[in-house]
């Protein structure tokens, strides 16, 4: 997964862009879909209650980041709700060895990942 920067993207690929690409692959994959790694990806949560979904996905996100993207440190995972009371997960990350932060918003119902720079760069 770390090979994109070295073999495809070239030396001009920023580390944060490579991390975003990798996290998109890892967290955008349905758990158990075509990979020999049982912990790779996220479980399909369509049948769970919202509380089960939040607990399950939070644990799986933390596990996937720890196992498959060691270049970032997980700062925290928060729940956020829209006007329709639909849950989203806000994942706060920091690039190791850097003050650069990243915020990832996951909408399990729509199965979308939205990466955003965290405006608080160096804040804990």
Describe the secondary structure blueprint for this structure.
Blueprint: H1 3-9, H2 15-27, H3 50-68, E1 72-81, E2 87-95, E3 101-107, E4 112-117
Antiparallel strand pairs: 1-2, 2-3, 3-4
Task: Explain the overall architecture.
The chain has 124 residues and is an alpha+beta fold. It has one domain (3-117): Nuclear Transport Factor 2, Chain: A. The chain has 3 helices and 4 strands. A 4-stranded antiparallel sheet has the order 1-2-3-4, covered by helices on one side. A hairpin with a 4-residue loop joins strand 3 (101-107) and strand 4 (112-117). It is globular and about 45 Å long. The two termini are 28 Å apart.
Features:
124 residues; alpha+beta; Nuclear Transport Factor 2, Chain: A; 3 helices; globular
Mean pLDDT: 83
Unreliable spans are none
Report the CATH C-level class: Alpha Beta
For the termini, the CA-CA separation is 28 Å
Structural class: alpha+beta
Q: Count the DSSP helices.
A: 3
Number of domains: 1
Short summary of the structure?
With 124 residues, the chain is α+β, with helices and mostly antiparallel strands. Helices cover 31% and strands 26% of the residues.
